[in-house]
Design brief:
alpha/beta, four-stranded antiparallel β-sheet, 8 helices, globular
């Protein structure tokens, strides 16, 4: 279980994350929703240890995330980190080595995932020659190559065509069935509604609504009426996602 308690991150006078708390149970998919600058990526970077919180606690299975526990986390950043001149195999061997994976294990896992995405022919293809959708599939494979228990996906479907989106959704659900704990952000409400059991709406670093998605949608009241989809709720609480 991932547990965030009273998490704060300030950059000078700007508070990017303002006292948020939430839990993500094992095997659960949890969604963070908010405009650009709401604090989603900053929260992810604190969980990963890329930046230090100003205050608050981050625990995974009741332990602080460092060393051995860090190796149990997979991360797909919003901005890709692929090396264009490498082949897909070379790229995965490089990232696998950072997780102390054996070369034969990297190749085995890579082939399994390439087969899952029906792109086995890309094994020895250079990253620079791939389409945007296929680069995102490889970025996803890199993030889960070491078989992590906790997976963080920052805008995983951004800018993808519908077919690529569907393929990545199926991959996320496959990992959920394997018992992985997944937390992701998205600008697309339908993706959150399809995949997530629990959600948090962030605005200017603050959690303004959180809980089980089904319960929120059934019980949220607008103009005296209950029962609203996530997009309607977001607009009522925050306004347009893109303002």
């Amino acid at each position: 279980m991932l547990e965030i308690k009273n998490l704060v991150k300030s950059f000078g006078e700007n508070t990017a994350v303002d006292n948020i708390s939430f839990k993500v149970e094992k095997g659960e998919i949890y969604g963070l929703i908010g405009r650009n600058g709401a604090g989603k990526s900053t929260t992810f970077r604190m969980i990963l240890g890329i930046i230090e919180p100003t205050s608050g606690t981050i625990l995974y299975d009741n332990k602080k995330i460092k060393g051995e526990i860090s190796d149990k986390i997979g991360y797909l950043p919003e901005e890709g980190s692929l090396i264009p001149s490498y082949t897909v195999l070379e790229l995965c061997e490089y990232y696998g080595s950072l997780k102390l994976m054996k070369s034969e294990d990297v190749r085995k896992r890579l082939i399994e995932w390439l087969d899952e995405f029906n792109v086995i022919e890309y094994l020895n293809k250079k990253v620079k020659d791939l389409s945007k959708g296929n680069k995102q599939k490889i970025q996803f494979i890199v993030s889960v190559l070491h078989n992590p228990d906790l997976i963080i996906l920052d805008e995983p479907f951004s800018g993808l065509d519908p077919i690529s989106v569907d393929e990545l959704k199926k991959a996320v659900l496959k990992l959920k069935k394997e018992g992985k704990t997944i937390i992701f952000s998205s600008h697309r409400m339908e993706h959150i509604e399809e995949l997530c059991e629990s959600v948090m709406i962030l605005d200017k670093g603050k959690a303004i609504l959180q809980g089980k998605l089904k319960e929120i949608e059934e019980n949220y009241e607008i103009d005296g009426k209950k029962g609203h989809n996530l997009n309607e709720i977001f607009i009522n609480k925050v306004g347009s996602l893109y303002e």
